[in-house]
Every structure is written in C-alpha cells, then in structure tokens.
Write a structure and sequence with these properties.
This protein folds into four domains: 1-66, Orthogonal Bundle (Arc Repressor Mutant, subunit A); 73-135, Orthogonal Bundle (Arc Repressor Mutant, subunit A); 164-415, no CATH class; 463-502. The chain has 20 helices and six strands. It has helices spanning 11-22, 27-34, 38-46, 48-56, 73-88, 95-108, 118-127, 144-157, 194-198, 250-266, 299-302, 309-331, 337-342, 346-359, 362-374, 386-389, 396-406, 434-439, 463-480, 483-503, and strands at 166-175, 200-208, 217-220, 239-242, 271-275, 289-293. The protein has a six-stranded mixed β-sheet with strand order 4-3-2-1-5-6, sandwiched between helices. Helix 1 packs antiparallel against helix 2 (27-34), helix 2 packs across helix 3 and helix 12 packs across helix 14 (346-359). The N and C termini lie far apart (124 Å).
Length: 517
Amino acid sequence: MEGRKRTVLSLKDKAKAIELSKQGLSSRKISEVLKCGKTQINNLLKRKHEVLEDLEQNVDPERKRRRHVTGNEEINELCWTWFQDATKRRICVTGPLLQEQAKKFASQLKNDSFKASNGWLESFRKRHNISFGLMSGERGDVNTETVRDWKEKLNLICEGYEPRKIFNMDETGLFFRETTRKTLFVKGEDCAGGKKSKDRITVALCASMCGEKVKPVLIAKSRNPRCFKKIKPETLPVSYYYNKKSWMNSGIMEDWLKGLDRKMGRQNRRILLFMDNAPSHPKLQLRNIEWKFFPANTTSHTQPMDMGISQTTKLKFRRKQMQYILNQMEKQPGVGGTELLRQINILDTIYWLNQAWQEVESSTITKCFEKAGFSFTSNENDDKSEDEDDDDDVPLSVLKLSSELFGCDFSELVQLDQDINTCDTDTIDWGLPAQQILDIEKVSSDEEICEDDGDEELNSISISDANIYLEKLKAFAQNHGHAILLEHIMISSAIVDSMAVSHTKQKTITDFLPKSM
C-alpha cells in the first residue's frame, strides 16, 4: 500500500497555521485547512519560535524547508551585516560586489573551502529575501511587497504582548537654532562640521502603542553647556548625552537600553521594542526587553514614529520657538530674528522638547501605530493626523512671524531637519579583519568633547533676587486671574525658601557672645 505523500508547508503556510491556532482552532481543523497531517501541525506549533525568527529575518515566505548548516555561517552572518550597512547608506550592492566581499571575509577567516559561487549568491539572496534591482530617489524605493509581507506577519511577531507592552523608538535630527531659509531646501545634509553642526542635536523618542511615553533622549555636542551652570544633567527632563557630532552611537544606545531594561524590571514588565536597523543599534540580550528590527528601507511605511509622532513633536517644538521669538521681539526692539534665534540655548531646547513631547496626545500615538500596521482592532484609521490639525491652533501673529523669519509656512518648519543624519554610519570599520569584526561588541565612543556650547555666561542671581522676581510673578498671576500659573509660582517660592534655609550658615553659641576687644 502506497503511503500518503507528506505536504511540505511554506513559511507563509506555517505563519497562517500559527495565526489560526492563535484564533482558537484545533490542530485537526488547521490540518484540514492546510491539507496536511495533524501531527505535522502539532510539531509546527511546538517550534513556532523558529518560524517567528525566520519571519523577523525577512526570509522568503514561499520557502518550504529550513536552511541546512553549511559551515559557512560566520561568512553568511558577516555578509548579511555588511549588506544591511551598505543598503542603509544607500550604496548600490550588486551580486559581484557581494561575492567579492564574501571572498574577502572567507580569506580572513582562513576558510579555503568556501567559494563565493553563483549558487551561494542565489542561496544567500533567497535566505534573506533579497531582490537585486534599481535604487532610485534619495532614500531608495520602498519595496511595497516587503512592506505588505511585514504587516501580514506583524501580529505573529507581537504574539504574547499586549498593546501597552509594544514600543517603538526612533531618532530624529533637530536644528534648534535655524536662522536661514536656505537650509529648508538642503537635502541629505550630513552636518559633518561648520555652523550647522553646532546648531543641531539628535532626539530619540520612544512610546508604546497605548500612548505611554518614555523620557526623551537628547544628544548634544557639549559635555557641560554653560547654560546648565549647576544643573546636573541627570535631573533634566530628558536623558542627556553628548559627543562631538551630536550623533547616536552604539555606546549611547546600549546605555539607554540598559536603563530602560532596569526600569521595566522594576515595574515587573517585559516589553517588545521595535527599532530600525541603524548601525548604531547594537544587538544585546536583555532580561526585560525583546527587540525586533523593521525590514531595511521600509520605515517610512512600517515605523510608527515616522507615521506622524516625530513630526507632531517637532511642530509643537517649533511653535514654542516662534512664541519665544515673538516675546523676545517685544523685550529686545531692534534686534533681528537671526540674532534672537542665536540666543536659544540647549537648556531652552531641552524644556521645550519635553513640553512638546508631553503635549502629544496618546490618541495620536495610537493612530500612528495603527497606520504602521499594528492595529489589533477593526477600527478604521482616521485619515487626518494631529499634525495636520495643529495649524488651526497657531495664532495669526505666529503664522506671520514664521513667514517673515523663515520664508515659509509654519507647517514647513517641521521639515527643516527631516534628512539630517542621526547616527554615525561608520561605526563598523569593514577594513578590519573579519574575526575582529565578529568579536566587536560595541563601538568605542571616546571622542573629543566640547565643554560648552558657546552660550554667554549667565549673571549670578542671589536668593533674595529670586524672591523679588517671584513676588512680581505672583502679582502678575493674581492680576490676570491665572490660577495654574499662581500654583506653580507658589511651588517655586517654597523651593526657593527651602534653598535659603539650606544655605543659611548654622549659628553656634559663640556667635551670640560679645566679640573680644
């Protein structure tokens, strides 16, 4: 009697089986749907973590068998890392170029048996679902099929995590002292040096699908800006870092991730964190964080932060910048807009950024997650995002001012820093021996650090002066009937009073005795 032929399931079929199991279907029902054996489904569900791992690695969904161990895993790993780095930097990678790099790695690893044949290239391409084709445009074309496949398997990747435990983190550049219209139209500005390098920072935002916001990260150029005076960076409302290029690097990212991991541990939570595959994002094993990378060159369609969260935050920041200049024009008549913008310092930027981030509505964050494919409900996305509505709340004076100072509409200010680099794309030195690259755990962040940001030295203010100013502010709030402002002023007064007590020198009994002649 001839045995029944075993049905070989593709990766797409396996993902469907896991999804059906998640919906409550039994192994027998699933086997009937996929026309395969019940035992086959049971074995598949026991190894579903392998399927999810393949989905994460962008393996061809039509592949039917797991790849065999060939002994060339180190070469394949190096080539995949190199390929991701090259495509991230918009370098056109051809088949012969990839084969040549593979030969170089094999030589350095003393693997004489490896041949970078056309067969190896085809296997490598299929393993990572790579399509060789044309790259057009500044950012490279987004592969719509890759985006569609990613969104189809997203529910499986998120399996076991509630929406409140699903986070996205991304970096964005920010010119905090923009002064000329010309930079509005500079594309691909990498800010390697000069004046613009000094006036830009990197900001990293992280939030959950339910709208929970993590303290923003701000990377500036100075270790100790003069405007900080005696303010300790750890007391600021942002996680403050610095290096000479104001870029994210693997050292900063590792420190931030470990801090977030400790925070989640204290809350007895384990989260799923999505990020892009930037070179500055190291691979760490953390106790309370599982992370996943978006497919290369798809974040404009798959990353929630790029769906409007970062843009909304920047728009709110620009509004505060405009309001500041409007007030300063009244206080400093005759001073031009360029000079007023130059007076903005890192401390101003930190507090404006934090306020802007706190003002982003949770509903906006949730909608951006849904737009990126994270929707676990049947609710339709609202076509209108919050950043499209924000102009309705902007005073006419501010709208006019943005046109006069920047030569553009207020909404265009968000695009000022859209294309600037946020991380060091040279974190991997491909000139190093292959074994040394494999052994690298992190990139050294030892860099020349500036001690200040060029801000003018602030005048010293005594406690008695502070009390005088607070009394004036108190009267101002009372005269305008502003209860919230008055509440904050009273809190500030209490803080200043406690500072006065702590600064008062303790008197001893000898202070009350008459001085000897």
